[in-house]
Design goal:
With 156 residues, the protein is mainly alpha-helical. It has 5 helices and no strands. The two termini are 24 Å apart. The model has no long low-confidence stretch (mean pLDDT 95).
Length: 156
């Protein structure tokens, strides 16, 4: 594989982490939500909101991948060095992990909140969203740090 290919692989890891992490996070929250809705249909709106929160990491992964493939890589592809190519691969892997674990753990937090909806008569929903936002921050930081590192490595 040539250096541009290695760098491109790193760039695409962001979206892969976001998609896989979001799918795993939603797979934790949504089935729990179905159980709650089966017992208490009135909690549908809370379940829909909390179950969908892990989806946002897909957007962060996409933004990272788009930026890397459309802005960074075209600017350095003619003069890319092995250091830059492997650095992009490593940065992409870091973003993959950040998005994957952020989305998955956000799904776990949302699942726990969904389980408590009937016991608290829905009052736990806002607290759950705040706690889920803590996990969200890791996804945002993964994307931002990844983009900053790409800019540093590329010299653009």
């Amino acid at each position: 594989m040539d250096l541009v290919g290695i760098a491109s692989l790193g760039a695409t890891m962001g979206i892969m982490g976001g998609v896989v992490g979001s799918a795993l996070g939603i797979s934790k929250a949504a089935p729990t939500g179905l159980s709650v809705i089966a017992e208490e249909p009135g909690y549908f709106k809370f379940v829909m909101l909390l179950s969908s929160l892990p989806m946002t990491q897909t957007f962060y992964g996409f933004i990272f991948t788009f930026y890397a493939l459309m802005i960074i890589l075209p600017g350095i592809s003619a003069t890319i060095t092995p250091f830059q190519a492997y650095a992009m691969l490593g940065i992409g892997f870091m973003v993959l992990l950040a998005e994957l674990f952020s989305a998955y753990m956000q799904g776990v937090v949302c699942m726990a909140g969904i389980l408590e909806l009937p016991k608290t008569k829905g009052k736990i929903a806002s607290t759950t969203m705040i706690l889920a936002a803590y996990e969200e921050i890791f996804g945002i930081l993964g994307m931002v740090f990844g983009i900053v590192l790409l800019i540093m490595v590329s010299g653009l």
